[in-house]
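Thanks for the sequence, V.! I ran SDR family NAD(P)-dependent oxidoreductase right away. Repeating your input here for the record:
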Amino acid sequence: MAEKALVTGASRGIGKAIAKKLASEGYDLYLTCLHSMDALTEYAKELERKYGVFCLAFQADMGNASDVERLFEAAPVRRLDVLVNNAGISHIGLLQDMTPEEWDRVFSTNVRSCFLTCRKAIPLMLQAGRGRILNISSVWGAAGASAEAAYSASKGAVNSLTKALAKELAPSGIPVNALACGVIDTDMNRCFSEEERQALTEEIPAGRFGTPEEAADLAFRILEAPAYMTGQIITLDGGWI
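Predicted structure:
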């Protein structure tokens, strides 16, 4: 029986690349998105055709408890070997100009979503006696970024959640790790002008942005690592931070 994985925020960028990598390795997939349901549905069909796996697309706000409940009940997700918490949004701007609603939205999507999915996935993993959790984080979760206070704080919370949950689940043999990405060439980072992109590139010792495929390859290696590797925040940033 094929292993089953849930990848949130899978319609584009890193999540989309991780979904493809897992499908290529024979995983059956549950994939979620918030807005791009048509695109995700077509992508799920493409992965099924190409790799012969089961792939279900599901529209949900992963920071909404009702949506997450509906996902696990309606999918139906009855067994889960891998959970990849990738859903995330950024917010660029001065903290003093943020509204409380904007702050809450960042934390709902980036942190609350991890809590809600883990809360539903852990009992399934404990019942099966196995499972792996990978949270997609950012270098800003440790270093902090000017004009990205909410995003940095949310990813710092993801890192702390990863470490705490790893200790909680280690006795059950369920590793919990995080992949902290630097600048990856995704839609999220296409908000920068060409001048800003060039300036960023010059700061990175590797001399370029990372690719979603590189992030997906490393994510898979983390998921395949010995279970004794847990509670780790693994950085992929071209030597930047």
